[in-house]
Amino acid sequence: MKTTKLLFLLTLIFTGLTFSSCSSDDDNEGGGSSVNFGPKNVFTGDLPKTIGLSTIKYNSDGLLEEVLSTTEKVTFEYPSQTKSTGNTVAVIMKVNDLQYPEDSYTVKFAIGSNGFASRALQTYADNSTDTWEFSYNRDGQLNYMKRSEGDNEVTNITYADGNITGIKMESDDKSEGVYTTSIGYTSDAHPNGIENKGCVMLFDITFGADLDEMEVAYYAGLLGRATKKLPLKKTEQYVGETTSDTYIFDWTLNTKGYPTKVSYMDGEYDESLNLGW
Q1: Helical segments of the chain, H only
Q2: Within 10 Å of residue 70's Cβ, how many Cβ atoms?
Q3: Terminal-residue alpha carbon distance, the chain
Q4: How many helices (H) and strands (E) does the chain have?
Q5: How big is the chain by its Cα radius of gyration, in Å?
Q6: Which pLDDT does position 206 carry in this prediction?
Q7: Is the dihedral of CA 11, 14, 18, 19 positive or negative?
Q8: CB neighbours (10 Å) of residue 91?
Q9: Bridge partners of 144?
Q10: Are 19 and 144 in contact (CB under 8 A)?
Q11: Is pLDDT at 34 greater than 80 in this prediction?
Q12: Tens digit of pLDDT for each residue in 172-197?
């Protein structure tokens, strides 16, 4: 990225300028001096304590402090203005690769008046950077993401009745094709679906949204609110191709109705992810 372009992006992110919406029903930016911020803006009940092999730790203010696994340590820093002023102060996420320190990086988020990330600047150990943009619908759910990595990869997410119905992902590199998913919430075993009581959002696994390393920011309350129901089926396809891949998700719930495990088939392999509360 050229120096002049980087300076311009830094100015946009940290001076609190207002941007036009990427969605007609977006409620990402705006006036007001108070911001509902943090995990409790997303998780309406219990907070997750473990995701897979990662342990989640919150500070005394109820904000996400650390996500730790055997290979990675993610920490969050919150300037004092974050909880009272929208879009002018960054939340800082530091990702330390415990096996390959040279792959560590830092992400600075600008926070909109809805309490969610509006933009982010990702800086790697070699000082190279990537930028991110996020927008949300009126229910505070992520409906748009643009990342400079992957030739300006754009993801649009559609909703109906509070649930993701599908995503569409494309980039400036047209040879990559246009990737789409469609999501289902009912099955023979669950004709009325399963309430998403834990506000779980596994963007990559269950929806096919390519957030990669940014997905952990959801647990800090930075990437919008969850679907009303848990996804039971995902179908992936590239536009113009006749073949598609379908994944069926089987959720295990505890006595309170919170999901403790999701299982699915990935090709010939059984996959699962445990969740703790």
Answers
A1: 3-14, 149-152
A2: 9
A3: 42
A4: 2, 17
A5: 19
A6: 98
A7: positive
A8: 24
A9: 135, 156
A10: no
A11: no
A12: 988 889 999 999 999 999 999 999 99
249 close to 234: Cβ distance less than 8 angstroms = yes
Tokens of 144: 């748009």
**Residues 6 or more apart from 1 whose CB is under 8 A from it?**
128, 129, 148
The answer to whether the beta carbons of residues 265 and 247 sit under 8 Å apart is: yes
Q: What is the pLDDT of residue 249?
A: 98
Question: Which secondary-structure segment (H or E) carries 273?
Answer: strand 269-276
Residue 250 tokens read as 């089987």
Q: Return the number of other C-beta atoms located less than 10 Å from residue 16's C-beta.
A: 14
Residue where the block lists tokens 């619908």: 137
Q: Would you say 50 and 275 are in contact if contact means Cβ atoms under 8 Å apart?
A: yes
Q: Is 28 helix (H, G, I), strand (E, B) or coil?
A: coil
Tell me the backbone φ, ψ of residue 160, rounded to 5 degrees.
-150, 130
Predicted confidence (pLDDT) per residue in 48-92, tens digit: 999 999 999 999 999 999 999 999 999 999 876 555 444 455 799
> Which one-letter amino acid corresponds to residue 17?
L
Residues in CB range of 43: below 8 A, 6 or more apart: 198, 199, 221
- The predicted structure's pLDDT at residue 80: 64
For residues 274 and 212, what is the distance between their CA atoms, to the nearest angstrom?
19
Length of the chain: 277
Q: How far apart are CA 61 and CA 176, in angstroms?
A: 44
Pick the closest to residue 1 from 127, 134, 95, 145 (CA basis): 127
pTM of the full predicted structure? 0.85
The partner residues of 271 in beta bridges, in order of sequence, read: 264
* Distance from C-alpha of 195 to C-alpha of 140, rounded to nearest angstrom: 18
Displacement of CA 255 from its chain's centroid (Å): 27
**What CA–CA distances, in Å, run from 154 to 4, 143, 175, 250, 273?**
23, 11, 15, 29, 27
